[in-house]
C-alpha cells in the first residue's frame, strides 16, 4: 500500500514516536516491581513521564498516567481497548462471564444494558435500610468494647458488614455459616491470585495443590450463589431484592431472561466487586479519621447537625458534604481497585506515541491520584480538596476510583452510599483512635489495595 492509500489514522501512527521503555532486563527492576510495585512505578513515572513501557516478568505493559490519555482509553476510544488483558484473563476462572471479567463486545453491552437500571440511585435508595440496619448491628456489637482500651479489628468487622449488606441487597439473606465460608473462600482466592501475580509461574491451570485449592473455593462460591437462585426458581421464596430484579429483567431486543449460568456469574461478580473494595475503603476511611482528629470532629459536627440521633436515609446523604469529601479523599489516597488493564485492539496513537495492536495498557489510580500536576501536596489527607471551589478546573480523569466510560463501576452509587453511611454512623457514636504505640498502617497492593495486616482501632463512646 503506498503512502497515498493510508488512512489519516495510519499516517498518524506511522509518524508517531516510540513509547519510552524502562530497560526490561535490569534485575533490579524485576525485583523492585515484585517487592514494592507502587514505589517502583512512581520512580519510573518520575524518570520516564506519563507514558512509558515497562515489564512485569517479561510481559510488556504501557503505563498511561495522565487524565487526558486515560480518558482517551476509557471513554473516547474505549471501543479500541477491551479487557482481553492479563489482569482479567487470569481472573477469568473466578469471574466467569460476569461483567467484571467480560472482555467486551456485543454480548457484554447487552448484559450491562440489562443490569444498569438496577444500580441507579433511585434503586440504591431501596437498599439503604439494609445498610443502616447492619451498621447499627455493628455499633451495638462495638458498644461494650468502646472504652478506649480494647482494640477492634475494623477491617474484619466492617468486612462482615459489607458482606451482609451486599448479600441482603442481593438475596434478602441474613448471613450464616455459608456466607462466612464464602468470605474465607474469597480471601483464599485473593491470596492465590495475588501470589500468582507477583510470580506467574506455573500458570493457574497447571494441576497441583494451588489449582485444586482455587477450584474448590470457586466451586463452593458457585454453590453458595446457585442455592439462592434455585430456591427462587423453585418458587420457595419471593423477595424484592436485586436477585429478583435481575431474574425478571429481559433483554429489550429478544425479550429473553438472562440464563441461569450467566445470572450466577453476574451475582458472583457483584459480590466480588462489592465486598473487598468497600471493606478496604471503609477501613482506610476510619483509619484516616483516627489519624486526623480535627477532620473526625468536623465530620461528627456535620452529622450531629444534620441528623441528630435519627437513622439516615438516602436523601440525607446529599446534606453530608464533608462526609462525602472524606470518603472521596480516602478513595483518592487508597483507591481500592487501584489498577486496571486494557488490551489495544487496533493500532492507535496516544500523546504522539505509537500504541500497537495487542499492547497491554496499564492504568494505576494510586499513581494518578498522586500526580503532582493535578494534586497539591498529594500525600496529605485533605478532604477539602474535593470542595466545589477547589475541584474546579481539575480534570475529571485525575480522579478515577470507579473507572470511567462505558465500563465505569456499576456499583458506584451503592458504594458511595454505603461508605458515607458507615463513616457517618460510626463517628456519630464513637471517637475512633489509633491504639497507643501502633505503627502506621501501610498499603499492601494485592489484587485490591489492602491495609497491610488490617486496620485496628480503639473506640470511645461519645
Ligand atoms: C469502594 C467501592 C468500589 C470501588 C472502589 C470499585 C471500583 C471499581 C472500578 C475501578 C471498576 C472498573 C474497573 C475497570 O474499568 O477496569 C469497577 C467495576 C465494577 N464494579 Fe466496582 N467498585 C466498588 C464497589 C462496587 C460495588 C458495591 C459493586 C456491586 C454492587 C461493584 C460492582 C462492579 C462491577 C460489576 C464492575 C464491572 C462493571 C463493568 O465492567 O461493566 N463495585 N469497580
Brief rundown of the structure:
The protein has 462 residues and is of the alpha+beta class. The protein has 18 helices and twelve strands.
Number of strands: 12
Question: Main sheet, how many strands, which sense, barrel?
Answer: 5 strands, mixed
Question: Could you tell me the mean pLDDT?
Answer: 92
Helix content, binned percent: 40-55%
How many domain regions?
1
Q: What percentage of the residues does DSSP assign to strands (E)?
A: 5-15%
Q: Taking strands numbered 1, 2, ... along the chain, how are they ordered across the largest sheet?
A: 1-2-8-5-3
Q: CATH fold name, please?
A: Cytochrome p450
Q: Number of helix segments?
A: 18
**Fourth-level CATH superfamily:** Cytochrome P450
Bound molecules: protoporphyrin IX containing FE
Helix-strand sequence: HHHEEHEHHHHEHHHHHHHEEEEHHHEEEE
CATH classification class: Mainly Alpha
Shape: globular
Please state the second-level CATH architecture. Answer: Orthogonal Bundle
What's the N-to-C terminus distance? 76 Å
Oligomer category: single chain
Which residue ranges are poorly predicted, with pLDDT under 50 across at least 5 consecutive positions? Answer: none
Radius of gyration, in Å, reads 23 Å
The chain-level structural class is alpha+beta
GO molecular function: heme binding; iron ion binding; monooxygenase activity; oxidoreductase activity, acting on paired donors, with incorporation or reduction of molecular oxygen
Cofactor: heme
Protein name: Cytochrome P450
InterPro entries: Cyt_P450, Cyt_P450_CS, Cyt_P450_E_grp-IV, Cyt_P450_sf, Cytochrome_P450_Monoox
Amino acid at each position: 500500500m503506498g503512502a497515498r492509500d493510508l488512512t489519516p489514522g495510519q499516517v498518524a501512527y506511522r509518524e508517531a514516536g516510540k513509547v519510552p521503555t524502562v530497560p526490561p532486563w535490569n534485575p533490579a527492576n524485576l525485583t523492585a516491581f515484585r517487592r514494592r510495585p507502587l514505589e517502583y512505578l512512581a520512580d519510573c513515572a518520575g524518570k520516564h513521564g506519563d507514558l512509558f513501557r515497562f515489564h512485569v516478568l517479561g510481559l510488556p505493559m504501557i503505563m498511561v498516567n495522565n487524565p487526558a490519555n486515560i480518558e482517551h482509553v476509557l471513554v473516547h476510544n474505549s471501543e479500541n481497548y477491551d479487557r482481553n488483558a492479563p489482569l482479567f484473563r487470569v481472573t477469568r476462572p473466578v469471574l466467569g462471564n460476569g461483567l467484571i471479567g467480560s472482555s467486551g463486545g456485543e454480548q457484554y453491552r447487552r448484559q450491562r444494558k440489562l443490569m444498569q437500571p438496577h444500580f441507579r440511585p433511585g434503586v440504591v435508595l431501596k437498599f439503604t435500610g439494609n445498610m443502616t440496619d447492619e451498621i447499627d448491628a455493628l455499633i451495638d456489637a462495638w458498644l461494650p468494647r468502646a472504652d478506649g482500651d480494647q482494640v477492634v479489628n475494623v477491617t474484619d468487622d466492617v468486612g462482615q458488614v459489607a458482606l451482609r449488606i451486599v448479600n441482603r441487597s442481593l438475596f434478602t439473606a441474613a448471613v450464616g455459616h455459608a456466607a462466612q465460608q464464602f468470605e474465607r473462600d474469597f480471601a483464599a482466592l485473593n491470596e492465590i491470585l495475588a501470589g500468582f501475580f507477583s510470580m506467574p509461574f506455573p500458570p493457574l491451570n497447571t494441576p497441583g495443590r494451588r489449582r485444586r485449592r482455587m477450584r474448590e473455593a470457586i466451586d463452593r462460591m458457585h454453590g453458595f450463589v446457585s442455592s439462592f437462585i434455585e430456591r427462587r426458581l423453585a418458587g420457595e421464596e419471593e423477595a424484592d431484592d436485586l436477585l429478583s430484579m435481575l431474574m425478571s429483567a429481559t433483554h429489550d431486543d429478544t425479550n429473553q431472561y438472562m440464563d441461569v449460568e450467566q445470572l450466577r456469574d453476574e451475582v458472583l461478580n457483584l459480590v466480588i466487586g462489592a465486598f473487598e473494595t468497600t471493606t478496604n475503603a471503609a477501613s482506610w476511611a476510619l483509619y484516616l479519621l483516627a489519624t486526623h482528629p480535627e477532620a473526625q470532629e468536623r465530620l461528627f459536627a456535620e452529622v450531629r447537625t444534620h441528623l441528630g440521633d435519627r437513622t439516615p436515609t438516602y436523601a440525607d446523604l446529599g446534606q453530608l458534604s464533608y462526609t462525602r469529601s472524606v470518603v472521596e479523599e480516602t478513595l483518592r489516597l487508597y483507591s481500592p481497585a487501584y489498577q486496571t488493564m486494557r488490551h489495544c485492539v487496533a493500532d492507535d496513537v496516544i500523546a504522539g506515541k505509537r500504541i500497537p495492536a495487542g499492547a497491554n495498557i496499564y492504568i494505576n489510580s494510586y499513581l494518578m491520584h498522586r500526580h503532582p500536576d493535578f494534586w497539591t501536596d498529594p500525600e496529605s489527607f485533605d478532604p477539602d480538596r474535593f470542595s466545589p471551589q477547589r475541584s474546579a478546573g481539575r480534570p475529571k480523569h485525575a480522579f478515577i476510583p470507579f473507572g470511567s466510560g462505558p465500563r465505569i463501576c456499576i456499583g458506584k452509587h451503592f458504594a458511595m452510599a454505603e461508605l458515607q453511611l458507615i463513616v457517618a454512623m460510626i463517628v456519630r457514636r464513637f471517637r475512633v483512635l489509633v491504639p497507643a504505640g501502633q505503627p502506621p498502617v501501610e498499603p499492601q497492593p494485592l489484587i485490591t489495595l489492602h491495609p497491610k495486616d488490617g486496620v485496628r482501632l480503639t473506640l470511645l463512646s461519645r
